[in-house]
Amino acid sequence: MSLDFVQTLPYDSITSIVRKAAYGLVTTCIIGTAVYAGYRVAAPEKYSNKRHRHPELNDQIEKVLDSLKISDEQLIHIMHILEEEMSAGLSPITHKQATVKMFPTYVRNIPNGTEMGHVLALDLGGTNFRVLLIDLHGNSKIELTSKIFVIPQSIMIGDGKNLFRHLAECLAEFMKKENLLHSGICYPLGFTFSFPCKQEGLASARLTAWTKGFSCSGVVNEDVVKLLQEAIVEKGINAKCVALVNDTVGTLMACAYKDPSTAIGLILGTGTNACYIENLDKVGTWNGDYNEPKQVIINMEWGAFGDNSRLKHIRTKYDQEVDISSINPGKQIFEKMISGMYMGEIVRLIILDLLQQELLFLGHRDTYGDYKTPLYNRGGFYTKFVSTVETDEGIQFSNTRRVLEDIGIHNPTFDDCTIVQHICRQVSKRAARLAGAGLAVLINRIGKSNITVGVDGSLYRYHPRFKRNMERCSGKGAAMVACVAERNLFKISDEHDKETNDYETVN
Ligand code: ADP
Ligand code: MG
């Protein structure tokens, strides 16, 4: 079994987008099945409250929401900027100052589906920590057993040593349950660590900065594999960390196990990031050998795109507010406009703004000012609410009403529901279009006629329109994209998975 592959499978489902030909029309075909239950593809609805409200009010609301709109021309411009930032990250002269770091990984080969064996994996993503046992059958089939553990907030921002101790404790608990602990076998362990790292080998990587709400002390600039292995040894666990990869790389690899045309890995979860297979001659920062295959997977760390103000022209006051009150102001600007950790908060800030401008919840003014309600509290509007609201079709707004009830708005009017849904749609559409523009840059750059993109992350998985909006946009940006969504690629034997949806932190 290839070591490159060890850490590549901590994913319970993979979705792929396939580029079929170089130009022409956009074709979408869906070959996935049951996982889409609850995923309703709604026909685009017009903002229908215009019938009911005073036209001037609507104009004012539209004006607020106009700041979120990004035209096709603007997106093409953003694609050009991203290309420039990618070149800066890949050049040894500019890498240090570059915002999009374009880290070379040590992964040169993708799997071919024949790899076999039992492997353990840890997946530290930002929202959940997952421990997995992976059984590779050798015929492109994989079986997973996994358990999700929550990382308490106190550990996320505490001493780094405690973080790794906690990870080792969870691993021990899982191995005990699976009868693997002290079995006499030392299991190879892959570590999917989804934070920006400068990789120094397959099993050696230094954290460059924490993101997504983590800020443990004593970890930045340290080798995280070493820190993990020390904690594993301290606990006397029979496992050895043999590889560390970013979640984007893990997703690409897991998808490649099924589909050899996979060349891009994309994450749309707590954060957002992408990786792709690049020719070595384009990687100025490469310091390894130039043997075949003359390619390496690049972990872009595209969440930091815009950290040098180059996306200033598209940022709104809501984006600025999200950024200022985050744990890492000025950092991860692209991520903060796209990913699950921030989307709900952007929506909340817009709702509050409209409320304060007396454009929303007009019939309920007497009940406002209850600052204890989630509406008034940072993180009070979960990103999963955006999905729920956008699942409503027609005029009942039963989901939207439920969500509004949850954030402390009782008996909203039809207009209120329409406006809230409109806000959610604009925010998620902007995010999907930005991600689509990034994807289009990669598809164009790879330039092959058949490219599969592995995608993972709850935002992509559960939001009812993200996928379609992103594909539309990347289809426009790239000459042609044919999209294939595959679901339920892997068997899941984990009842804890449901929890993913119910836990969110916004900093
Ligand atoms: P991680 O990024 O830690 O690997 P996930 O891929 O599960 O974890 O992503 C978690 C993020 O997904 C959270 O920020 C959460 O807000 C978001 N999320 C969870 N459920 C949904 C949903 N139903 N719709 C949209 N976003 C969701
Ligand atoms: Mg993840």
TrEMBL record:
Cellular component terms (Gene Ontology): cytosol; mitochondrion
EC number(s) recorded for this UniProt protein: 2.7.1.-
Record PROSITE patterns: HEXOKINASE_2
Main EC class the enzyme belongs to: transferase
GO BP annotation list: glucose metabolic process; glycolytic process; intracellular glucose homeostasis
Boundaries of every Hexokinase N-terminal domain copy: 61-257
Highest taxon listed in the record's lineage: Eukaryota
Domain Hexokinase C-terminal: 264-473
Official protein name in the record: Phosphotransferase
InterPro entries cross-referenced by the UniProt entry: ATPase_NBD (IPR043129), Hexokinase (IPR001312), Hexokinase_C (IPR022673), Hexokinase_N (IPR022672)
Residue stretches spanning the membrane: 21-39
Pathway annotation from the record: Carbohydrate degradation; glycolysis; D-glyceraldehyde 3-phosphate and glycerone phosphate from D-glucose: step 1/4; Carbohydrate metabolism; hexose metabolism
